[in-house]
Amino acid sequence: MNFKKILSDFGSYIFIGLTLLGFLIIYAGFGGRSKRNVVGETNFYFIGIGLLLIIPFIVWTIKNKLKSKQIQDDKTADIQRLISFGEKITINLDDLQIQSNSYKQEISVGHGTQQRNEYVDVNHNVILLEVPYKNELIKYKLNINMDSTKLRMHFAIKEKTELYVDQENPNNNYLDLRFLEN
User: Fold this and answer.
1) pTM of the predicted model as reported, rounded to 2 decimal places
2) Measuring CA to CA, how many Å separate 75 from each of 38, 53, 105, 176?
3) Which of 46, 59, 70, 85 is deepest in the core (most CB within 10 A)?
């Protein structure tokens, strides 16, 4: 086994353990129930130590949120750049190939004596598109979770949309299906 992987897993376990320990110490500091501690008695030293132990968790959470937002902003900027500077190819939505797989899935809801089974509609549609572009064939595949009848109705109403292609890298493309979000 890889030594780096072992250290990474060990560090993750320590991180999780210290975070849980921090929450437990904060709980005890606010007067958590015990034989010696009267309920409602606050120990600010315990609260401070607990907060120090969960600060890495808070920093990690904020860092991940910011990184996720940055990735989303970069993705949106790339799409806007493609729309502004990419080559626009009009796509007839009647020509799209839609492969649908809709079914009902049984899931368990609740727990104990309140547990019951419910059926949930699952709609899995795959849109396949092949567009000739400068002696190449751009293959576009998109998964959409929407009722297939509703999807076909949206396509019938809209009739046409655009595929934006980066002129230098045809694999970098964007099919404008924002009308499905309404």
Assistant:
1) 0.63
2) 54, 35, 33, 14
3) 46
150: Cβ contacts below 8 Å, ≥ 6 apart: none
Q: Is residue 125 a contact partner of residue 145, using CB atoms and an 8 Å limit?
A: yes
Instruction: Establish how many alpha carbons lie within 13 A of residue 6's alpha carbon, considering only the half-sphere containing its beta carbon.
Output: 3
pLDDT tens across the length of the chain (182 residues): 677 888 778 888 888 999 999 999 888 888 766 566 555 678 889 889 999 999 999 999 999 999 999 999 999 999 999 989 988 988 888 878 888 888 888 888 888 888 888 888 888 888 888 888 888 888 888 888 888 888 888 888 888 999 898 888 888 888 888 888 76
User: What single DSSP character describes residue 38?
Assistant: P
